[in-house]
Write a structure and sequence with these properties.
Elements (H helix, E strand, L loop, with lengths): L6 E5 L3 E2 L6 H19 L3 E9 L3 H9 L4 H18 L6 E4 L3 H16 L3 E11 L4 E3 L1 H11 L15 E10 L5 H10 L4 E2 L1 H12 L5 E2 L1 E2 L7 E2 L2 E6 L1 H6 L1 H4 L7 H7 L4 E5 L3 H15 L7 E4 L2 E4 L6 E2 L11 H19 L7 E3 L1 H30 L17 H6 L2 H10 L3 H22 L1 H4 L6 H22 L4 H10 L11 H4 L24 H5 L12
Parallel strand pairs: 1-3, 1-13, 2-3, 3-4, 8-14, 13-14, 15-17
Antiparallel strand pairs: 5-6, 5-7, 7-9, 10-12, 11-12, 15-16
Helix pairs in contact: 1-12, 2-3, 6-7, 7-11, 12-13, 13-16, 13-18, 15-16, 16-18, 18-19
């Protein structure tokens, strides 16, 4: 383990195995992957964790419905989650399953520590429980939710609206109420702990409303991790699941690894689970005497935009608007998929997706702008310089040009946005250089310069500047579109720059390999045609031009 480099530990939530992975699963995974790739490129020793949450009543019920044991059910679904990660070129360093022995050991250790510290006690629970959400609710919460919906007396889940179960059983409790002041102090002193601000405000308001102690064990079923101090109880599934972030970095098993990796720099979660990650989880860590993560970033929900009405709708089988990751990849390709979801759906907000918008973003940004720039420039470089990049005069890179002006400070602007998960802003900064380069071609008309031998140096400067703009853009777009960027660098004979660990140095203006072989290659992003079919997701009719 290289501990000289700063550690960057980033996680997705572990995904519940009650059904196959979906678009939301892939969104969070790619969101984390982009940051992991960026941090590797800026000299960090990255630990990127994802995995599956395999305990709880909901899993046990799903398994029974399919005639399987809970473990068999989990084992049957996990491959689909791993295959999705591979499909989307996600570079997680670990994939944890909560049914693994290493996790059982970590959960039981932390539970013992929290109990020994005086924050766990035995009692009895009498209240409401939502099995699909695996969440407890008080009578007051349920009554208020029913009143708001006009469903008084039906006792529906405040979160998902499904019927609740009345649970009465012996239980162990976590003294969550003891941490109200410390949590509010955390949010006040470290406002970046919960991002974006709208989610932080939600969390603060919730905690200011008062915290009640939390039931953290169940006795009515046995599919879970037994409490180390009471073998008649299994750990509440959320308490179990949250501890995975500790398990994966050696809690209780590798002191050196844990000291190097913890606390995590970023937990990425959906906005629907911020209370677990921003209230219960830091309280658990405080109770155990452990530091809290640096940031919890909550993204919004993905909805589908109705092409006919323009309204956004929740995905559902009954509406027939469920979009699968594989279908989008079939249309846009892996890098097109990554670029669309990471830049057109602003992280931290809800995003309405549509086939028409996918096609528009793909054609405008990738086919017409980025792909076109690479194709035109490399073709001209090969044509005018005998299959190579131009050889530049000494000091060419200090001569100001429209492209060097845009590139000046670009890396800093890009990193400032990307580090706060504003991938749309980071990509927009790079596209400024791409657009400037395309305009530069039209303004300078290199095909005209090539006809005049007396302007050979000017031609070399123009083509060299364009090649350099492409090289810098490829590096900055690599976290979003890794395969395409690697291909572009390969075409410039810059394979050695792929996977750089020093992004700023790699993007220093003037670094392209001069007199190096140029490969023209096929179009990086063939334009999408048959617009109506593309908007309907009709893969058979929505062909890519040029293929």
């Amino acid at each position: 383990m290289d501990t000289v480099q700063p550690s960057y530990y980033i996680t997705t939530p572990i995904y519940y195995v009650n059904a196959a992975p979906h678009l939301g699963t892939s969104y969070t995974s790619v969101l984390a992957d982009v940051q992991a790739r960026l941090r590797r490129a800026t000299g960090h020793n990255v630990m990127f964790l994802t995995g599956t949450d395999e305990h709880g009543e909901k899993v046990a019920e799903a398994a029974a419905e399919h005639g399987m044991t809970p473990q068999e059910w989990c084992d049957s679904l996990v491959p689909a989650f791993k295959e999705l990660l591979q499909l989307l070129d996600v570079t997680n360093d670990d994939f944890i399953r909560t049914t693994e022995p290493r996790h059982t050991a970590a959960v039981q250790r932390l539970m013992s520590v929290i109990k020994d510290n005086g924050y766990i006690y035995k009692g009895s629970y009498d209240g409401w429980y939502c099995v699909p959400e695996e969440t407890y609710f008080t009578d007051t919460q349920v009554r208020h939710a029913d009143e708001e919906r006009g469903t008084e007396g039906e006792h529906l889940c405040p979160d998902c609206g499904r019927p609740l179960q009345r649970v009465q059983e012996e239980s162990w409790f976590f003294k969550l109420s003891a941490f109200q002041d410390r949590l509010l102090e955390l949010y006040r002193d470290n406002p970046h702990f919960v991002e974006p601000e709208i989610r932080r405000n939600e969390v603060v308001s919730f905690v200011e409303g008062g915290l009640k102690d939390l039931s953290i064990s169940r006795t009515s079923f046995d599919w879970g991790i037994e409490l180390p101090f009471d073998d008649g109880h299994v750990t509440y599934v959320w308490f179990d699941a949250l501890i995975n972030y500790l398990t994966a970095v050696g809690y209780g098993s590798d002191e050196a690894e844990f000291a190097y990796r913890w606390p995590a720099q970023a937990h990425l979660v959906g906005k629907d689970i911020i209370r677990f990650h921003c209230v219960i989880w830091p309280a658990m860590l405080m109770a155990a005497g452990l530091p809290v993560p640096e940031e919890v970033f909550a993204h919004g929900f993905l909805t589908v935009k109705n092409e006919e009405t323009g309204a956004t709708e929740k995905m559902s089988k009954s509406r027939g608007n469920v979009v699968s990751p594989a279908t989008v990849v079939d249309l846009l390709g892996v890098d097109g998929y990554r670029y669309y979801f990471m830049t057109d759906v602003k992280p931290g907000t809800d995003g309405g997706i549509s086939w028409g918008r996918m096609e528009q973003v793909y054609n405008t940004d990738l086919a017409n702008s980025w792909g076109n720039l690479v194709s035109r420039t490399l073709n001209m470089s090969a044509k005018y310089f005998d299959g190579r990049t131009p050889v530049m005069p000494e000091g060419w890179d200090t001569v100001e040009s429209p492209l060097s002006q845009v590139a000046d400070g670009l890396v800093d602007r890009y990193l400032e946005a990307m580090y706060r998960f504003a991938y749309d802003e980071g990509a927009a900064a790079v596209m400024e250089l791409v657009h400037a380069a395309n305009h530069y071609i039209e303004d300078m008309e290199p095909w005209g310069l090539a006809k005049d031998p007396a302007r050979a140096d000017e031609l070399a400067f123009v083509i060299g500047s364009l090649v350099e703009a492409i090289r810098v853009s490829a590096h900055l777009l690599a976290p979003l579109m890794p395969s395409t960027s690697a291909e572009v660098l390969h075409r410039l004979s810059a394979e050695g720059e792929v996977g750089t660990r020093d992004l700023k140095a790699a993007c220093a203006w003037g670094g392209f390999a001069q007199g190096a072989s140029v490969t023209k290659g096929d179009a990086l992003f063939p334009r999408l045609v048959a617009e109506g079919a593309a908007q309907k997701g009709d893969k058979a009719k929505a062909a890519k031009g040029g293929r």
